[in-house]
Write a structure and sequence with these properties.
Radius of gyration: 28 Å
Number of strands: 0
Helix content: over 70%
Strand content: under 5%
Mean pLDDT: 86
Low-confidence stretches: none
Largest sheet: none
Protein name: DUF2937 family protein
Keywords: Membrane, Transmembrane, Transmembrane helix
InterPro entries: DUF2937
Pfam families: DUF2937
Shape: elongated
Order of helices and strands: HHHHHHH
Number of helices: 7
């Protein structure tokens, strides 16, 4: 076995291990996202219920906050508006992620990453052995791509050091 194949095999193995972790990260991210959506749902439903008990809808209640002379109440109204926007955005993101297939999730997840949730997921991420079909497929794809990429890089870097074959120099006599 030549050195290039050994190095390419190591590169393939490294990418296989890395990509095999994606399904686990995606699962942990989705769980955190789902937890955030659940908590925001509780806050939203409680606010809407309180507003209804006061004879208002959400927009009417928020309008009351905004016209208040009390800076604290006006700020709470602004904060609640931001909470509702975040709830809607995270709910849509969760629905998209849950409805996506493995390849679609891989392609789309970076666009969905909420910086807070994504960062906290990475901070608390625990690697897992891929025993699902999805994990094994990611590992296999990672090995193939890693092997090919590293092999190509090694081959390219070795070009200046290759011996030229097939040329025979004949000196005149």
């Amino acid at each position: 076995m030549d050195v290039r194949r050994l190095i390419a095999g190591c590169g393939g193995l490294a990418l296989a291990v890395t990509l095999s972790q994606f399904p686990e990260y995606a699962q942990q991210y989705t769980q955190r996202l789902g937890g955030a959506v659940d908590e925001l749902r509780v806050i939203t439903e409680d606010f809407d219920r309180s507003a209804a008990e006061g004879g208002l809808d959400r927009q009417g209640a928020l309008a009351r906050y905004s016209i208040s002379e009390d800076a604290f109440l006006a700020d709470r109204g602004t904060a609640m508006s931001a909470t509702f926007v975040r709830y809607d955005m995270l709910s849509q993101t969760l629905a998209q992620i849950e409805g996506a297939g493995p390849v679609e999730r891989f392609q789309s997840l970076p666009a969905y990453l909420d910086t807070d949730i994504g960062r906290r997921t990475l901070e608390n991420y625990r690697p897992a052995v891929p025993v699902t079909v999805e994990g094994i497929l990611y590992a296999g794809a990672g090995f193939i791509v890693g092997y090919l990429l590293v092999s190509a890089v090694v081959r390219f870097m070795a070009l200046p050091f290759r011996r030229r074959r097939g040329r025979v120099r004949v000196t005149g006599a």
